[in-house]
């Protein structure tokens, strides 16, 4: 395991633009959470081993043309076997919190009913290994990998998922609640609804606008019910859920562009947080959402609300939109970003994170905010056994500066999780998009700390 050499770290951490970092870790306060984030399907591997059942992503990756280079995650980063090495790396980089997800189908191979003791034992080993290293585990219950057995019964389109999810959450809370106190219910529900069940770009690959509203409603109900179960079953739990968020700016001050921006903001940023706050769905800006009433039952309006301890925000870019008659639902289209772009084609806009923090910080019902994901993919290469990624160092420096700005202005943001600890299987992008602070050679599984990882090690020391 490679230890931090601060001589190398200092040479790696030279600011790419020749400007010194103007803040330190201490500026964020001693109780600020620092961590990295991963998800089960993207790193674990052992996809068909140790009693794990298939998930929707296992099936989706076998469909030709769905994943770049027809990649699959059968092995991924082999974290199932290498978790101790990976946690040693996390500790070496100076982080004290680790956000990871549980694989629903590793615990319930059939989605409900039968428990897989080998899967449960693995997560106990992982949690124990975190504690042994002084790392606090943060569990995400659902990070997109629905058991295929439940998809075969309707998946998120079926209202039965409220019962399936409650069974899963109740088991996990009871099994791990004595040793884990930080919990996240859902990861980016908007992506599940829009990419998985409307555009079909993600698993399970379902297409059709008619699927969007029932999936949204079932996700929102499960989000709140998951929170209630955790509050009930885990004494002292710190319970949250996470949203992917992007500031939405109109292309021009014209009324049409402004209305288009408000509609898209309702979808990207308001759709799931406002129901949890007891505000209902944002039909004021997007009247189409009124049709969700056809999927609501008596009492649902009240069941949507839950008083979360924190809301996790995940920001990667901001969006500029303009009115377009070609897209009758939104009447909006993204304007291509200008300036620096990541390997994903996303525009780098550090001030966007400040904007989204202030937007969510304005909600009276939100107690705390956590940046539960933030990071960038660049074209990393190993040269002479090292990975120099100055663009990523600049990215993290500039985004953290905006987190600190919001915090100093009174926004209740109290943690930051970098995406990601490791290069990993990046969903439809396969292995092309590298977000890690640690480079992974997928052929040999060798880990190499990147210069951005050394930058964090120095910053957090």
Automatic annotation (TrEMBL):
Cellular component terms (Gene Ontology) = cytosol
Known EC number: 3.2.1.21
Query: Which protein family is named in the record?
Result: Belongs to the glycosyl hydrolase 1 family.
Residues given in the record as substrate binding sites: 42, 143, 187, 316, 419, 426-427
Keywords, A to Z? Carbohydrate metabolism, Cellulose degradation, Glycosidase, Hydrolase, Polysaccharide degradation
Active site at 188 (proton donor), 373 (nucleophile)
GO biological process entries: cellulose catabolic process
Q: Which GO terms describe its molecular function?
A: beta-glucosidase activity
This protein's source sits in the domain of life called Bacteria
Quote the catalytic activity from the record.
Hydrolysis of terminal, non-reducing beta-D-glucosyl residues with release of beta-D-glucose
- The protein here is known as Beta-glucosidase
Reply yes or no: does the keyword Hydrolase apply.
yes
Q: Which Pfam families match?
A: Glyco_hydro_1 (PF00232)
Main enzyme class: hydrolase
């Amino acid at each position: 395991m490679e230890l931090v050499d601060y001589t190398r770290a200092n040479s790696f951490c030279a600011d790419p633009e020749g400007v010194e970092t103007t803040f330190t870790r201490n500026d964020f306060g001693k109780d600020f959470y620092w961590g990295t984030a991963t998800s089960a399907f993207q790193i674990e591997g052992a996809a068909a081993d140790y009693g794990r059942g298939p998930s929707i992503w296992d099936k989706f990756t076998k469909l030709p043309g769905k994943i770049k280079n027809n990649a699959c995650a059968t092995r991924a980063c082999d974290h199932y076997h290498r978790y101790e090495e990976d946690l040693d790396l996390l500790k070496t980089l100076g982080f004290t919190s680790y956000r990871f997800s549980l694989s629903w189908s590793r615990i319930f191979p059939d989605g409900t009913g039968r428990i897989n003791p080998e899967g449960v034992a693995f997560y106990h080993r992982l949690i124990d290994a975190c504690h042994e290293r002084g790392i606090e585990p943060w569990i995400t219950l659902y990070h997109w990998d629905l058991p295929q057995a439940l998809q075969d019964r309707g998946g998120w389109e079926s209202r039965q998922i409220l019962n399936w999810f409650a069974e899963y959450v109740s088991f996990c809370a009871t099994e791990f609640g004595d040793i884990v106190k930080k919990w996240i219910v859902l990861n980016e529900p908007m992506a599940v609804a829009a990419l998985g069940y409307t555009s079909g770009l993600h698993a399970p690959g379902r297409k059709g606008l008619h699927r969007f509203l029932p999936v949204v409603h079932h996700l929102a109900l499960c989000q709140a019910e998951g929170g209630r179960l955790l509050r009930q079953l885990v004494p002292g739990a710190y319970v949250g859920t996470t949203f992917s968020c992007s500031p939405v700016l109109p292309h021009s001050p014209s009324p049409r562009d402004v209305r288009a921006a408000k509609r898209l903001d309702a979808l990207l940023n308001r759709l799931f947080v406002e129901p949890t706050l007891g505000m209902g769905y944002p039909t004021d800006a997007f009247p189409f959402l009124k049709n969700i009433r056809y999927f609501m039952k008596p009492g649902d309006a009240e069941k949507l609300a839950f008083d979360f301890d924190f809301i996790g925000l995940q920001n990667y870019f901001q969006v500029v939109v303009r009115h377009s008659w070609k897209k009758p639902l939104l009447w909006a289209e993204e304007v291509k970003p200008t300036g620096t772009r990541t390997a994903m084609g996303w525009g780098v806009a550090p001030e966007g994170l400040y904007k989204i923090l202030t937007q969510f910080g304005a909600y009276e019902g939100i107690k705390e905010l956590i940046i539960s994901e933030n990071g960038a993919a660049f074209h990393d290469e190993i040269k002479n056994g090292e990975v120099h990624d100055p663009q990523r160092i600049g990215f993290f420096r500039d985004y953290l500066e905006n987190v600190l700005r919001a915090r100093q202005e009174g926004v209740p943001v109290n943690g930051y999780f970098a995406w990601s600890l490791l290069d990993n299987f990046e969903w439809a992008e396969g292995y092309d998009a590298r977000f890690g602070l640690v480079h992974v050679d997928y052929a040999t599984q060798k880990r190499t700390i990147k210069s951005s990882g050394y930058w964090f090690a120095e910053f957090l020391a």
